[in-house]
Amino acid sequence: MLFSRVLTILWLALLADSASARLHYSVELAADARQLFVSLCANAPLAAGMLVSGRIDAGDYLGDLTGDGASRPQLTQRGIEHGAMAAGECLRYAVNAYAAANADRYRLSWRTGDYVMLPLQLWLWRPQQIPVGSSLELSLPHGWTGSLPYAPLAAGDSGYALVNTPADWDATSAFGRLMSHHMQVPGGEVRLDVLPPMDVRQNASMQRWAEQNLRALLAANGRLPLPSVQVLVVPLPGVATAVPWGQVTRGGGSALKLFVGLDASEESLRDDWTLAHEFSHLLHPYLRTRGRWLSEGLASYYQNVLRARSGELTPAQAWAKLDAGFVRGESEPNHHRQTLSAAAQGGYRSTMRVYWSGAAFWLEAELALRQQGGGDLADVLDAFARRHLPSNHQWRPERFVSELDAVAGTDLFAPLYARYEPALAFPMLGETYRQLGLGEDVGRLALTDTAPAVHIRNAIMQRSHSVSQHARPASFVNDLKIEGR
Length: 485
Fold this sequence. Notes:
A 7-stranded mixed sheet has the order 4-7-2-1-10-13-12. Strands 18-19-17-16-15-20 form a 6-stranded mixed sheet, with helices on one face. It has a 4-stranded antiparallel sheet with strand order 8-9-14-11. It is of the alpha+beta class. A hairpin with a 5-residue loop joins strand 18 and strand 19. The chain is built from 15 helices and 20 strands. Helix 3 crosses helix 5, helix 5 packs across helix 6 and helix 10 crosses helix 11 (397-408). The chain has helices spanning 2-20, 97-102, 200-221, 266-271, 274-280, 292-309, 315-331, 340-344, 351-371, 377-388, 397-408, 413-420, 430-436, 454-460, 476-479; strands spanning 23-29, 35-42, 49-51, 62-67, 74-75, 80-82, 90-96, 110-111, 115-119, 135-139, 145-147, 151-152, 159-161, 172-176, 179-185, 188-194, 228-236, 245-249, 255-261, 483-484.
């Protein structure tokens, strides 16, 4: 019994020491960019444990694994297992960056002498729980800079503050001759990093495009909802389509990755909705696939509303684009009688139904919120963001809508969610259209000024600052000075 108690005390002491340990990664990219050399050190004793990557193929690119003292690290099917480490001791390993980049089936992750782009999970081996205060330092070839989802420790610094998002959440890292623009706005910073090849004219066009869409996002509340956002642009030589693909990743913090046609005109970039759509995803937490119809719906709704509020679209153009989206969603058949929630989780092709049913949810929510005197949807999302973002864990969609009701002081979002989530058909929007003066139904758009809620229709496309205590003057978005460095 005494021996058991002694073991328990020792184990608890070791656990306490491990909990207080902060990790520091030193990451060096070889001059030819083919190898990444990583050193992981602890500033306090670290208990024996496991390092994971979040990718099952990460071990294929791992080599030269060594450790100080009794750590004896070894790669197993579960991850890198290591023994206890004394304060100041380190683990070291190398990653074949060239092989990992060339495993990309699209062949976009390596450009000799210019850049290497890698999923973070292929080279950052870390504990399941990253200790608070842990950091990472980059050492790169001359003339190269890095782009990571983590926030820099200081302006122009090569150090980053690590955050504890789940290991399997997607994240992108890039190292190369990047064209970087750090844009300071109220609430935080957007770090725009553009991979080669781009000439000076194209690079300036990218910056103007990013600033234009950032103004659209700021048309919601006048501030960035997150303190630091990575926006990585991957040029596609020979492609004239403005933005064939864009996505938000959540590993290491919310970040955007956009594939942009190198031959796209500045006019086509200016007219493209993709960046406004992806920026809108910063307004909500990670809802995974079951809440995908909510998240993609919000982005589809706001890609039009916020561009109208910032002056990129007229209100009539924005309503026409929303109506066209609702037509696409309504027209997509549901042959397999899937609920909206099931459709959002994959299986049969139902992208239009998922995205535009979600947009209909947010339009209905906005109308009901304003009719109840609850103000602007943007105010509710802002109140949510101030309380919960950034968030480093997955949210259940039910919890998300319940919290929106809590911050709004309403009983609106949760009941509406309960109606939409099990639906087998596209929502019926005829009554919503008639109240807003949009016409008789989806696909028959006809703006009129005699509807009972026409004042709400007009207010939706023009930011109202009468509710939020954090609001700025109506001219704020147009007059905004985005400070670059």
